[in-house]
Specification:
- The structure is a homodimer of 418-residue chains.
- With 418 residues, the first copy, chain A, is an alpha/beta fold.
- Chain A has 14 helices and 16 strands.
- Chain A has two domains: 226 residues, 3-Layer(aba) Sandwich (Aldehyde Dehydrogenase, Chain A, domain 1), CATH 3.40.605.10; 146 residues, Aldehyde Dehydrogenase, Chain A, domain 2.
- In chain A, α3 runs antiparallel to α7.
- Chain A is globular.
- At the A-B interface, α10, α14, β13 and β16 of A face α10, α14, β13 and β16 of B.
Chain lengths: 418, 418
């Protein structure tokens, strides 16, 4: 671990190095990339002490407390998990080189569409240092160079991690570049680096994402908020509905695929609301409701839901309930207020389920399953970068394949166009 | 044709109408969409007179001359071509509804990834009124709503065309919205209409594209410039090289897939340059060359190529020639100066061809074929919107499929996450 980062480089110089490195990372074979990932895992494990010490410096300097401190904190176990993640990514199939289509034209031209690396990935993220290792792993696996701009509260941890990862023998110089996090200037340069960054990923809260979208001139993939809904239809199996609602709301309330809103068909509202409200309250959930839901809830603990509740992503143990006149009303409400992430219907009526899945305009639609399943890992894709709510390039779990682009290779025998 | 456009609507109101229409266009069946396209073709044919009269008003008011006038001009034949294009698009396969993947997870969840409409397409374009009909055809075929912002010089033609197309019975209200082209304000509103526009396509010159990229907050697909190269390798069949160079340069010099630069291996430069330079000059091409090329060209008519020539897209009968030391030098020059559109190698050496196709970082790479084949129609895809040089979402011919997004449909039996 002799190499250390050259801290004197400017953002512009780092962008040049990454652009230049991309042509070399693109040529690494699958075996070479997997071997780099395995050696990175080993380096992370054997440098546990220096990583913890850098992390301690971050914790001391930032002075943050509570949940934010927990996001920043590294432990021997979390470091072991980072190393394991590198090994897991090494085991995934390599999407680069896949032939997506191949055909011959009547004039004899042979055309194939092949998967190639994206080039240079940019990422702007907030406190959690494991994001550094996650994104380096995914970028290297897909033959890309990566430019990282982490949060300033994690500066020491991120620098140490990047020193370790980029010092692994065989990693092309410039393939992993970490930008200065002490000022906003590097963010501004990164998001406007046309020709240097092929895709930029903002990972963090809505203010960060909004800032990037408003100011970026490079292509951006927005991984977004989840104001997810569950609609309990007239014909729902109510035990199943209970299990899905409680799981989607409480199993991990701080994540984007947790449910935030419950819509109940008016014909079963009187029967269903008292039982689900009771269970939610017992699970520690703050329950809000529209007028009808409150009237039928059978509990004085249900607060009034206000207009601002319907578009809100709580990310905590809070759920708002609305009684809807039926399937169409549920679909209309969802399409108006959801963030287009994941929405579920609980029903025994297949026609209703099909209509819900067809008409709800979200990245994922579920029938009789918890919204918590909308996740790269749960889909069987391995590591994910986030869930995209946008429709361009990637919608839903943003995984390895989406860090690639394509190229057309055309082979002829001297054909010219008539 | 009783309906006329409501000209009193603001940009904001048109965006709302389009957003609202998208949920209805998305539900049209393939048969319904094809029938709309066929009826649009018929309406365009039968309204030939009113279209020509609107076009005459544009020609009179704009007072433009020459090539620009020709771009704006409609004739009975061009109107017939528009109608034919609508019929051609009706015959293409409908990408919407295609199941891209389908699998079952160990927990029994059934997941499928299906192709769905994008939602609302925005397009900003310059003079040619046929773009109005082309993009409406592609948008309707893929179940999208479309918001058009054409050039002010074509305002009458575009308005008449949109009146005709949107008056076809069955076209959802708001599915085809034309914005006011008299001021820049509608452009500004369109490119920042987050939540209303799912993808924005700027079609026009570099200044328009740059303005959109610099200022847009909605996702953009850049269809771009083509500074395309041909590399004639040491082992090239020189007759084949002649045919490809002349075709790629002269068959239609004003388009993005025309070749602009010729790189010649130094070992064959003395033999090849005089013959190709002679042919280029005979074809009316202005030839420029680096020092070595000029020395070997055997003609005094070859002007010196300057530094600014190498990145330039001429879009006319002009070609700059450079002698390169070999394959690596050709690849390095291309990756430095090309706009990453289409590049060709002429060689009899398969290993060289493979290396060129692997290492040149462009949307399309060709071996022994003219760059002019890089085109949606020539690939067999039907109508195209342009060629994308960006790596996100769509690279190369931008066709029907790229006007769609995907959705995950997940079917369970009450699964919750453990």
């Amino acid at each position: 671990m002799a190499t250390t980062l050259n801290n004197a480089l400017s953002t512009q110089e780092r962008l040049f190095r990454a652009r230049d490195a991309a042509s070399r990372t693109a040529q690494l074979s699958t075996a070479e990339k997997n071997s780099l990932l395995e050696n990175m895992a080993q380096a992370i494990e054997s440098e546990q002490k220096s990583i913890l010490s850098a992390n301690q410096a971050d914790l001391d300097e930032s002075g943050i407390e509570g949940a934010l401190r927990d996001r920043l904190l590294l432990t021997p176990q979390r470091i072991a998990e980072m190393a394991q993640m590198l090994l897991d990514v090494a085991k995934l199939a390599d999407p680069v080189g896949e032939i997506l289509k191949e055909w011959t034209r009547p004039n004899g031209l042979r055309i194939r569409k092949v998967r190639v690396p994206m080039g240079v990935i940019g990422i702007i993220y907030e406190s959690r240092p494991n994001v550094t290792v996650d994104t380096v792993a995914l970028a290297i696996k897909t033959g890309n160079a990566i430019v990282l701009r982490g949060g300033k509260e994690a500066a020491h941890s991120n620098r140490r991690l990047v020193e370790i990862l980029s010092s692994v023998p065989g990693v092309p110089q410039g393939a992993i570049e970490l930008l200065d996090s002490s000022t906003r200037a590097s963010v501004q340069e990164l998001i406007q680096a046309r020709g240097f960054i092929d895709v930029l990923i903002p990972r963090g809260g809505q203010p960060l994402i909004d800032f990037v979208i408003e100011n970026a001139t490079v292509p951006v993939i927005e991984t977004g908020a989840g104001n997810c809904h569950i609609f309990v239809d007239e014909s729902a199996d109510l035990d199943m509905a209970d299990a899905i609602v409680i799981n989607a709301k409480t199993q991990r309330p701080s994540v984007c695929n947790a449910a935030e809103k419950l819509l109940v068909h008016q014909r079963i509202a009187a029967a269903y609301l008292p039982r689900i409200v009771k269970k939610l309250l017992e699970s520690g959930v703050e329950v809000r409701g529209d007028e009808q839901a409150r009237a039928l809830a059978g509990s004085e603990k249900v607060c009034p839901a206000e207009a601002k509740d319907w578009p809100e992503e709580y990310l905590r143990l809070c759920m708002a309930i609305k009684v809807v006149p039926g399937l169409d009303g549920a679909i209309a409400h969802i399409n108006q207020y959801s963030t287009k992430h994941s929405e579920a219907i609980v029903t025994s009526d297949e026609a209703h389920a099909r209509q819900f899945m067809r008409l709800v305009d979200s990245a994922a639609v579920l029938w009789n399953a918890s919204t918590r399943f909308v996740d790269g890992g749960e889909f069987g894709f391995g590591a994910e970068i986030g869930i995209s709510n946008q429709k361009l390039h990637c919608r839903g779990p943003f995984v390895l394949e989406e860090l690639t682009s394509t190229k057309y290779e055309i082979t002829g025998t001297g054909q010219v166009r008539g």
